[in-house]
Design brief:
mainly alpha, disordered C terminus, 256 residues
Length: 256
C-alpha cells in the first residue's frame, strides 16, 4: 500500500515538474490556474488514500504510521508546487511580488509550517523511523525548516511567530539527533543536523538569534549544494529589497 501511495504521489509531482520546470512557456495567470488545479488533484489524492487507509484491514498499530506519512507527503507536495510556481513566474524579490504571487508564497509558507508541525507533533510515527531512511528524507526535514525560517523572516505574519518556529526547530534537532544516534549509517543525518543546529541558533527562543539572523545571507553558508543541484529544492533564493526608495529605510529591517 505504501509503495502504491508513493507511486501515485510521484505521478502528481512529475506533472508539476514537467509543467513548472526550466524553460516553461506558460505565463503567470496560466501558472496560477495550474497551481489551483493541482491543489484540487492533491486534495482528491489525499482524500482517496485517507479513505483507503482508514477502511483497510491493516493492523491497528500500522495505521498511525501510514496516516502520518500520507499527511506529510501532501504538505511536501503542496510546498513544492507553490515554490516551483514562484520560480516559474521568475520573481525572487518578495517586495516586487504581485498579489497573486504573494498569495502563492503565503501558501508555500503555510505548507512548510504544517509539514514541520506534522513531523514533530508525533515523532514516534515519522522521525523515529527516519534512521532507516535515505539521505533525501533527512534533507527534506532540514529544507522544510530552513524554508519556513526564511519565509517567516521575509514575510512575518505574527509577533510570536519566531518563538514558535525556533521552539519547533530545536525540537526537530532533538528528534533527529535521537534518530541519528540509533543508526549505524555513517553520517546519514549528520550533515543535516549540522545544517539545522546553527539555523535554530543553538539555544532557546529568547536568544537574540532571530534579531541577528539575516534571511538572505545567513542561509547561504550552510545550505548544501545538493538542495539545488541534485534535488531541486526551490525557495531559498528569495529575498526582500524595497522597490520604492521612500520605502527603503522603513522596509530594510525585513531583509536583516
Amino acid at each position: 500500500m505504501t509503495v502504491v501511495n508513493t507511486v501515485s504521489t510521484y505521478q502528481l509531482t512529475a506533472t508539476i515538474n514537467d509543467t513548472l520546470g526550466p524553460g516553461t512557456t506558460i505565463d503567470g495567470q496560466e501558472i496560477a490556474d495550474f497551481v489551483h488545479g493541482m491543489k484540487v488533484d492533491l486534495d482528491i489524492w489525499f482524500d482517496d488514500w485517507l479513505r483507503i487507509i482508514e477502511s483497510s484491514s491493516l493492523a491497528k498499530e500500522e495505521k498511525p504510521f501510514l496516516l502520518a506519512a500520507l499527511r506529510i507527503q501532501k504538505c511536501w507536495a503542496e510546498m513544492m508546487l507553490n515554490c516551483k510556481a514562484l520560480r516559474a513566474m521568475g520573481v525572487e524579490n518578495v517586495a516586487a511580488m504581485s498579489t497573486t504571487e504573494r498569495n502563492i508564497l503565503l501558501k508555500a509558507k503555510a505548507s512548510a509550517r504544517r509539514h514541520l508541525r506534522l513531523i514533530i507533533v508525533e515523532p514516534e510515527f515519522y522521525l523515529a523511523q527516519i534512521k532507516y531512511a535515505m539521505d533525501f528524507v533527512w534533507a527534506k526535514c532540514a529544507f522544510s525548516f530552513l524554508l519556513l525560517l526564511k519565509l517567516s523572516r521575509l514575510l512575518p505574519e505574527r509577533d510570536e511567530e519566531h518563538e514558535e518556529l525556533l521552539e519547533h526547530g530545536n525540537r526537530l534537532v532533538h528528534e533527529l539527533s535521537k534518530a541519528g544516534s540509533n543508526t549505524n549509517q555513517s553520517g546519514a543525518g549528520n550533515i543535516y543536523l549540522q545544517i539545522l543546529k546553527p539555523s535554530t541558533g543553538g539555544s532557546t527562543a529568547t536568544s537574540p538569534f532571530w534579531e541577528l539572523f539575516d534571511a538572505q545571507a545567513d542561509l547561504q553558508w550552510f545550505v548544501p549544494e545538493q538542495f539545488v543541484s541534485e534535488w531541486d529544492f526551490p525557495g531559498l533564493n528569495l529575498f526582500y529589497f524595497p522597490t520604492a526608495w521612500q520605502d527603503f529605510f522603513g522596509d530594510f529591517s525585513l531583509a536583516m
